[in-house]
């Protein structure tokens, strides 16, 4: 089983995939004239504008829901794993994919808003919707939808629950089966409450834990402030093969940095658009900009916090692809949350293991919530015009089951299975957004033109010549009047 899984991961995450992710992000950065720099102010302003409605959530709630999917195990365990197998240089490549990936996040999230639909009283959207409506190839849309259900509904929740269980076991000695049962009960209470409850929980939990985590990282950096030049130098030298110890694994640094960066920030992966489509906005570019900012928050803040804590304290091991050790600072410690726990523990004895376990619990738990919402959206897509309630009920049971199973299975297999699901989604979605870049770029140009005129941008798909944007053609004005009354 493990050999088959390993081969599939090798195919999906070949060097071609790594360069494809970087290439698409760089292309969109150029085509949008590096909006991730030019429009940072708009990202922040739009984040706090607008409010929820009967059909959708606010821009901030959509961002929180998106961040609940982005800020998870990848930030703590994934960053540690990238350092373990790619060396300190992997951190630079995580930053690089985040910076250029922000443009990919904008494109896919803007497309989700352009081609969203109002279904059963709620906004629904995502890659399956914009593939069908924008490209006009339904079988491809169905393929993505099925791949997402496999990845998000079956393969990836286990990564999150596994990290929670291992963290609680390491910190408090909680049996993994007990953790699995507890997760299932809490998750059931939330997901049976619908998208509003999921978004509500995420909008409170995610900002609180992210701020607490970053503040702790700042404390540790402050206590080791003299090490800053050395650590920054180590990251950059290792990234380009200039460090004596890590120069021989530059390929691993790039591969692991990009792979864990994409897993963490999800730019171009096709997950973020599901949340973006749920937002109540007057122009698709508004939510596209908000979702682009989530990539920065995830990787440049939370992932960097983990990396700095680990590197400043030296709480890491690094090995070559053949398993030969390069650095062994933590004898017998498996790559993952234990690195971060050891880092905090070395500075604040008796606190590290517990804090990381709690942080992992909240980050990873909210990620599983986000996974459920994405899976539900794809069930709704596949069963449009039919009674989807029985299928959605079965989906809930399956997700609860795999969450429990993930809590008690081996970590290595959990990550590998997740890499298969993620790889499928990334390949399918990146090809789609490359084909559909023109409507998104046209929408960005329209947004900026209206802003220059001093207007609050309002989208008119017909005027822009964008076809099959049925919600904006037929229902937007009706919804606006209903929300105003």
Kindly describe this structure.
With 485 residues, the protein is mainly alpha-helical. It has one domain: Amino acid/polyamine transporter I (Up-down Bundle). It contains 23 helices and 4 strands. The strands form 2 sheets. Strands 1-2 form a two-stranded antiparallel ribbon. The protein has a two-stranded antiparallel sheet with strand order 3-4. The longest helix has 31 residues, at 352-382. The mean pLDDT is 83. It is a multi-pass membrane protein. This is Alanine or glycine:cation symporter, AGCS family. It holds the Pfam family Na_Ala_symp.
Report a brief summary of the structure.
One of its GO terms (molecular function) is amino acid:sodium symporter activity. The protein is mainly alpha-helical and 485 residues long.
Q: What key attributes describe this structure?
A:
485 residues, mainly alpha, Amino acid/polyamine transporter I, two-stranded antiparallel sheet, 23 helices, 4 strands, globular
